[in-house]
Each structure stands twice: as structure tokens, then as C-alpha cells.
Design goal:
With 331 residues, the protein is an alpha/beta fold. Helices cover 44% and strands 20% of the residues. The protein has a 5-stranded mixed sheet with strand order 3-2-1-4-5, with helices on both faces. Strand 1 and strand 2 (12-19) form a beta hairpin. Helix 4 (157-167) crosses helix 5 and helix 4 runs parallel beside helix 6. The longest helix is centred in the C-terminal third of the chain and has 27 residues, at 223-249. It binds adenosine monophosphate (AMP) and magnesium ion. Residues 109, 113, 132, 135, 258, 291 line the site of magnesium ion (MG). Adenosine monophosphate is lined by residues 10, 12, 132-134, 158, 161-162, 176-179, 182, 258-260, 262-263, 290-291.
Length: 331
């Protein structure tokens, strides 16, 4: 079985093709870049996706050497994500499904991150820390569903880093904002106090963002000290919640995914925590850790093989689609 997956939940457009043995046949990604100094505008990102989609699909077929009629399945991200962006992926998937006469599977985006991590990370049953520009969740499989054990109650951690970086005037054409903050943080080891906000199993970043921005505006501390302290604080919070989920579920593996998972300091802290419990820790390479079409295609295969089919009328998008709303038929 060969599956083509379309990912378009945020700033990245991904078209991936994978077979049922887990061989990645193509992984095309195009990233919408907002104008200097601003964040993602959903309508503008969706316009980028619609204009880029035909070329990305063509490239995916070309890279894979697969012909359209050799595809057995089309999958797409149903949610969560930005409505206008999700709709471009859904409409494209419906069109491909109708024109090629292939079944269509609607996929939950965080679960796709987990499943591609299990596949390429060689993991069986990890506790997953999913940290990106649009999501912050600690997810683990329990009683037939992927459950969210902890999450942000306001903004995602990547968004906290991005907005702080913009407020502090950081910018770079090549590097994502989180990487710019990481580079600043590497210059310092002076910890400036920043609130540490965990509520139950959940984390909160919006007050931290305000606090860090105020520290910057006060001009009493160099940016590198604030960047270092911000990283130490928010990553410690994430590691604490992940550790508690690990202790609760008694699992033996930890996976980190999403754009913030590129951060060396976060991985170092997770690795140290994993070692202290004698469990395995894995990250993924950027090609599959960031939003991509391959993970959507792969979850489509798992769902299809376990007998799931999405009725055409259920191929709408859901901006707030939760992992625990999916009946996990493939595990
Ligand atoms: P995603 O939403 O998965 O595409 O990931 C994008 C997020 O990852 C943005 O918030 C980036 O600032 C963040 N990011 C990328 N590289 C790094 C890094 N090295 N350290 C921290 N955050 C990063
Ligand atoms: Mg993602």
C-alpha cells in the first residue's frame, strides 16, 4: 500500500509519500515566511499553500518515481491548526481522491507526529513531548487512546519563544526564532529569575512571555541572560511535566518532536531526565520532526490497514481536533 499525505495545518505545506513497510518515498516541504517582524497570518499562509500546492504535489511524485495511479490512499491533516490553512489541504485531498478514485483518510496531526516517531525512532510506546509553534502537549497511549497528560493552557512554547524574540528585535532570514534565542542563550550562564508556571500537569507561557519582554524593555539585563533564563525556565517546566507523565504511565521511552525539539539544550535536559530513570530518549531529524506530509501519509496507512475509512462528509477540518477524540484501531 502506498499513501500520499498532505500537511497544511500552519506555515508549512508538506506532501509526503510512504509505503506500508515504512519506506519514505518523498518528503516535500515548503514554508511560508511572514513579512519581517510579524507572525503567521492565517489567510496569507493559506494563499501560500494554495499557490504552492500543485508544484509540491508534482515534486512529490517526481521524487518518489511513483505515478498518481499507483497511490492507494490519500490522507490529510484534519486538525488541529489554522482553519484557512487546513482547508487548503482538505480541499486538495478531496480533489485528488475524487479524480484518482482513491480512498481518503482524515488524520489527527499530533498523533501523526507520535506515529512517525514510533516508526523512525524505533520506539514502541513512548511518552511524547510535542513542542512546536502551534502546540505544546505531553501525549501517551493509555486505555486504547492517545491521551494528553499535560499541555499549555494558553500559548504554545514555540510561540512564546517567537514572540519574545520579535519583541527583542531578533530576526534572521535563515534561522527560526527559537534558534536565534538558542544562539543568544549559549553566550550566557547568568540566570535571571523568571516565573515557573505549572498548574497541575499543565504549563502556562503567556505570563512568562510578558515577564521576559518586560525584563528586556527594562534594559537591566543583557539579552543573552534573558534568553538563557527563558530557555532554562520553559524547558525545565516541560521536562517536569514529561517526567511526571513518565512516572505515572511507567513507560520506558521518551520522544520529543515538533520544531522546538531542534533545541540542543531541551534535548540535553530530556536526555538527563531519561537517564536518571533508565529509559530511552529519542529525538528525530528535522525532516521528520517538523511538520511534514510523510507522517500524515503514514498515519493514513495505519488507519486504513486497521479498517478505518473516512466518509466524504467527514472530511471537514477541525481546528481544535484532540488526540483523545480518535479511536486508536491500529494498536
Ligand atoms: P513547528 O511549529 O513544528 O514548525 O516549529 C516551529 C517552532 O520551532 C517555532 O516556534 C520555532 O521558533 C521553533 N524552533 C525552531 N528551531 C528551534 C530551536 N533551535 N530552539 C528552539 N525552538 C526552535
Ligand atoms: Mg506539528
Amino acid at each position: 500500500m502506498i499513501s500520499l499525505g498532505i500537511e497544511s495545518s500552519a506555515d508549512k505545506l508538506g506532501v509526503g509519500i510512504i509505503d506500508d513497510k515504512g519506506n519514505v518515498l518523498s518528503n516535500i516541504r515548503r514554508t511560508y515566511k511572514p513579512p519581517y517582524g510579524s507572525g503567521i497570518h492565517p489567510r496569507e499562509a493559506s494563499e501560500f499553500h494554495s499557490s504552492t500546492m500543485p508544484g509540491a504535489i508534482e515534486d512529490a511524485f517526481q521524487e518518489s518515481g511513483i505515478k498518481p495511479d499507483e497511490i492507494d490512499l490519500i490522507s490529510f491533516t484534519k486538525g488541529p491548526g489554522l482553519g484557512p490553512c487546513l482547508r487548503i489541504g482538505a480541499v486538495t485531498a478531496r480533489t485528488l481522491s475524487l479524480s484518482l478514485d482513491k480512498p481518503l483518510i482524515a488524520v489527527n496531526h499530533p498523533i501523526a507526529h507520535v506515529e512517525i516517531g514510533r516508526l523512525v525512532g524505533g520506539l514502541d510506546d513512548p511518552v511524547v513531548l510535542y513542542v512546536s509553534g502551534g502546540n505544546t502537549q505531553v501525549i501517551a497511549f493509555s486505555e486504547k487512546r492517545y491521551r494528553v497528560f499535560g499541555e499549555t493552557i494558553d500559548i504554545p512554547v514555540g510561540n512564546c519563544l517567537d514572540v519574545f524574540g520579535r519583541n527583542a528585535g531578533l530576526s534572521d532570514k535563515e534561522n527560526p526564532m527559537g534558534r536565534m534565542i538558542e544562539i543568544e542563550a549559549l553566550k550566557s550562564s547568568n540566570y535571571v529569575s523568571i516565573p515557573y508556571v505549572i498548574k497541575g500537569m499543565d504549563v502556562s507561557f503567556s505570563g512568562i512571555l510578558t515577564h521576559a519582554t518586560r525584563l528586556f524593555n527594562d534594559k537591566k539585563h543583557p539579552l543573552e541572560d534573558i534568553a538563557f533564563s527563558l530557555q532554562e525556565t520553559v524547558f525545565s517546566m516541560l521536562v517536569e511535566v514529561t517526567e511526571r507523565a513518565l512516572a505515572h504511565t511507567k513507560k520506558e521511552e521518551i520522544l520529543v518532536c515538533g520544531g522546538v525539539a531542534a533545541n540542543t539544550r531541551l534535548k540535553e535536559m530530556l536526555d538527563e531526565m531519561a537517564n536518571s530513570h533508565g529509559v530511552i530518549f529519542r529525538g528525530l531529524n528535522a525532516d521528520l520532526a517538523l511538520d511534514n506530509g510523510v507522517m500524515i501519509a503514514w498515519l493514513g496507512i495505519l488507519m486504513k490497514q486497521s479498517g478505518v475509512s473516512t466518509r466524504f462528509e467527514d472530511t471537514t477540518v477541525d481546528q481544535h481536533f484532540r488526540p483523545e477524540d480518535v479511536d486508536v484501531t491500529w494498536r
